[in-house]
Structure formats: structure tokens, C-alpha cells
Amino acid sequence: MKFSIVLLACLFAVALANEEADVVKEFREVNKEDFKYGFELTNKIRAFQEGHLQDEKTWLVKGEYEFVTKDGKHIKVTYSADEYGYHPKVEHSH
């Protein structure tokens, strides 16, 4: 469940841009007990996430995504997720 929430947060950043963009960089590595993925688009959206199983039920995940809003603000969200929930830190600048 928590993994889904974090993944949706990254996809939300892409939806916010609401414009066409080409992929500049993309990678993914998915294994049974860990994963990594990331991408960067031409419209300055960037995301990275990695995680691993702490035990058979608990994923520890960390990542970040960033984008520029329609009014020119740069937003960067850095987060972690664990058995205690989703822990975001939001930074924004002009």
C-alpha cells in the first residue's frame, strides 16, 4: 500500500505539468527485494525512487521528484516511506 502511495506521488508530479515532453533519461531496476527507477523529461520534470524490503512485510523507500509550475516556481519533494508512513519534505523557489 505505501509503495503505491509513493509511486502515485511521483506520477502526480508528471500530471501537474500537463504538457507533452520527451524522455531525456530513464532507468529502472526491479528485483524481488529491492528496486530503483528514475526519469528526466524535457519539460524539467525529474523523479528518482529506490526501496528495499526491510522484512517480509515492510518496504523502506526514499526518493524525490521535482518540476516547475506554470507560474515558474521550482518545486522539489524529497521523501521517505516506512512502516510509520510517508514523510515528505517540500522545497520551492522562484
Automatic annotation (TrEMBL):
Coiled coil: none annotated. Residues 1-17 form the signal peptide. It holds the Pfam family Chitin_bind_4. Keywords: Cuticle, Signal. One of its GO terms (molecular function) is structural constituent of cuticle. It comes from the Eukaryota. PROSITE patterns: CHIT_BIND_RR_1, CHIT_BIND_RR_2. This is Larval cuticle protein 9-like.
